[in-house]
Amino acid sequence: MLITQAGNVKAIFTSNSVFALLSVLSLSGVFAVAKAQPTKSIYTSVDEKKCRTIKSSQAEAGDYLGRCVGTAGYTLLVAEGDLRQNVTVVTPGKKEHSLNLWSIVSPAFSIVGPTVEWRIIRRTPVALILRYNASEDPEKPDKKTSYLVVAKITADQICVTDKVAPGAKANEEARRLADQAATKPCLKPQR
Fold it and tell me: Rounded to 5 degrees, what are φ and ψ at 170?
């Protein structure tokens, strides 16, 4: 069998082409797996008993500020004043982003539910879901409307993108909206 230089070049070119093709296919598979990472949920508490009290006063309607453990270096500040609550998301870099729940979701007397849901992709929070119970009927102050609030968490913004009204599929709807929140605009305050 006679091996020529041209034959060697052809054999090397063919094996390099096969290697390159396999490499591209392998890498595209890695990227497809990375891109298709499922969104997971992590739950943390914002219950006053589980958060560290920073400030508390019983004067008039009361005043409270507590720092609650989040995930991946994030923390939550829960503030109450005039019988209304708000949440501020604090990044690992200590930058504070108020969700302005009083002006965006409801100006009524309110309380945040005791548990928040963090939507996570590859250990990074991408959205937050919290329950916001508002007493919107002045004739029936004990009757509360229980909204689910969706906030996006991106490198540039943390803000409320959706307010989900009570309903049989509200939890599923909030998760769906949270998983799409990164590209959505921030809600504007109610007028």
Answer: -60, -40
Cβ pair 45, 115 in contact under 8 A: yes
Spatial CA neighbour of 42 closest among 153, 145, 187, 134? 153
Sign of CA dihedral 48, 53, 57, 58: positive
Q: How far apart are CA 165 and CA 126, in angstroms?
A: 22
Model confidence pTM above 0.85 = no
Q: Which domain covers residue 169, as residue numbers?
A: 40-183
Write out pLDDT tens, residues 86-105: 999 999 999 999 999 999 99
Same domain, 78 and 127: yes
Tokens matching residue 71: 């995930």
